[in-house]
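Sample intake sheet
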Amino acid sequence: MIPSSCHFKHPWKVSHEEAKKIQAELSCFVITKDQFEKIEKISAVGVIFSKDEDKISVACANFSFPQLQILDQIVEKGNCDFPYTPGLFAFSVGPAILSVLNKIEKPDLIIFPGRGIDHPRKLGLATHLGVLLDFPTIACSKRPLWRNCPDLSMEKGAHVFIQDKNGKSIGAVLRTKDKVKPIFVTIGHKISIQTAIKIILECSKNYRIPEPLRYAHNLAKKRLIAPV
């Protein structure tokens, strides 16, 4: 399991302004280069809200890498105590995700849905939990944060880097399957965007969405609609 004691700690039930302050403080500790020895086991997280957004289902699945054989999985359903708010997603789902991660075998890297450092305060879900756990993470999304996305060729592996206002590459528009819409990959923590792209491509065998992430999403969805 991932150690239950986080590298950093903070309260989760806070005001929006307090949450933004926490994000700004934690963003100072983000690492955007590779800091790991090997990647042989990957975890993917799936998160689904109920229609009223008062319930949440969280799944985590471990896969061998690069074989992508399922190793173990866990899924839980519970209450969502912090209403979903754009830019503060981690405060809605963070405690539930940490609970699940603490019950699964420790991976070498975690793939999260949503944002990484492509965030107004450079602390999307993958980055937030990556910093708290001091763990390598990648963010992967179907939807761009940027209004104008660059064009790229239709072949799998085609990508264009996205840069911040200082010219630093923080993410990429990445085509994971020939002639399908691209996805959006960003640094979470303790990984470079170049390595993140390579890993996501190796995890994208048959579908647009990386298979570990797709599996975890479907697992969470099934648990949400299942009887209590």
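Comment: The chain has a mean pLDDT of 92. The domain at 16-138+205-225 is CATH 3.30.2170.10 (archaeoglobus fulgidus dsm 4304 fold).
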